[in-house]
Fold 3-oxoacyl-[acyl-carrier-protein] reductase FabG.
Amino acid sequence: MDLQHKRVLLTGASGGIGQAIATELAAAGANLLLVGRNHEKLEAVRATLATPENHMVFSADLTCETDLERLNHKSNQLYESGERIDIVINNAGVNEFNFLANRTVASIQQELNLNLFVPVLVSRMALNWLNRPGIILNIGSAFGGIGYPGYSIYCGAKAGMYRFSEALDRELDDSGIRVLYVAPRATDTDLNSPLVKQMNQELGNRSDSPQVVAKRVLKSLKEETTSCWIGWPEKLFVRVNQIFPAVVARSIRRQQARIHHFINMIHSEKE
C-alpha cells in the first residue's frame, strides 16, 4: 500500500517502538491518529513528527471498555467526515518477566488484555469503519513462536495474536482488508528492565533498536507481507520450533540456570 496521505491509527504510540513507527510513517507522508494513555507524552511525540499539524492524538486506556468505545466513536466520526482510517496498527503491549507461580491474577489479566484481547476488539471495531482497501497490522513477538521461560503469559498472548491475525486475514479474503503480523525479537525499549537487558547480553540473545522494527513495519505495510519475523537466528528458531521443538528446548535448557537466576533477582527486587 502506498502510505502517502493515508490515515493510520497507531496504539501504544508513546512507547519506544510506537514512537519509531510514528516517525517512519510521518516521514512517508502518512497522517496519524496517535493513541496512548498519556496525553502529554502523545503530544510530545506529535511535536517531533514531520508536519505535526497533520496528526491527531487520542488519550485512552484501551483495557477500559469505556475508552474503547470512545475510540470507536472517534473513528466513526472520522469515517463520516471523510477522513477515514486506512490502516490500524495494534502496537500497545506489556510484559512481565517472572515465574507464573509468582504472578498475581491482576497482572495476568492485564497482560492478556493489552496483548491479545484489546487488539482483537480494536480489529473487530475497525471492520465497521476502516477504509477499503485497508490494513490491520498487529505487532507480535518472536515469543509468539517460541515458548520461553519467564514469559509464559506473554508467549501465550502473542501466539494467540499470531494465529488470530492469520485466521482473520483468511476470513477477510477478498473483502478489501488485509491483516498482517510483524514479530520483533527483543527490542531496546523500556519494556525490558535493566536486569532483563543484562540477562540477554549474558546469554547472547540479540536485540534490535525500535528503528529497525519500525522500518520492517513500513516494509510490511508497503508490500502487504502477511507475516514477518525479525532477527536471525530467532526467525530460524521459530521455524525449527514448529517441526523439531525438542531441538529448541535443548538450546533453552542450557540457558535455564541463568534465566532462573535473573527471575529470582527481579522477584526479590519487587518484594
The beta strands are 7-11, 31-36, 56-59, 87-90, 134-139, 177-183, 227-229. The first helix runs from residue 16 to 27. The chain has one domain: 7-192+206-235. The chain has ten helices and seven strands.
